[in-house]
Amino acid sequence: MLFARRQVSTSTSLKMATAPKVTCHGAGLVSADADFKNSFTVFVQQGKIGGISVAFEGPSKPEIVFKDNKDNSVEVTYVPKVGGDYKIHVSYEDKPVKGSPFFLKVKGNAANTKKLVERITCSGEALKQGKVGTVNEVLVNCKDAGITGGLAIAMEGPSKPEVSFEDNKDGTLKVKYRPAKAGNYRLHLKFGDFAVAGSPFSITVS
To answer: Which Pfam families match (predicted)?
Structure first.
């Protein structure tokens, strides 16, 4: 059974020109631990540090804190909620710095991730009944979990339905499926190794 995965971007769009004389250093650009403070440093050789901006793209939206080191550099501290693959976008005056985006691997805490996944809820008539040849929609609420991506979906039954995600940009998303044949189906929804509450959902398609 194959799962379709949704990775929701939490970053803002950046221009492609490279910002001059701004560099980033630190272990926090490459690896990090979930639920812990991780950091890296941005050095501005010319200009004001107020032009620095940082955005994350990945399974969660980390809390970010800037600290002025008073030496033309800023320490960036962040706390990701869950493990997984992230991208760190660092820009200066709306231009990406050298090396951005940085590819980050976050090591997760299984117990904490499980607790967060338990906060995800699903609703909608399409969790129980669906229509053949029609796009059926399920609402997935991730607001309390703080998880912005990394959800996976799979569906099994008499046919292989088309499945897709739609981000509502408010902490929720729509899961859509379109079965080609009537019958009994099972909808699986999970994050990492943990199933969302109620999954798999038994659905009768007519």
So the answer is: Filamin (PF00630)
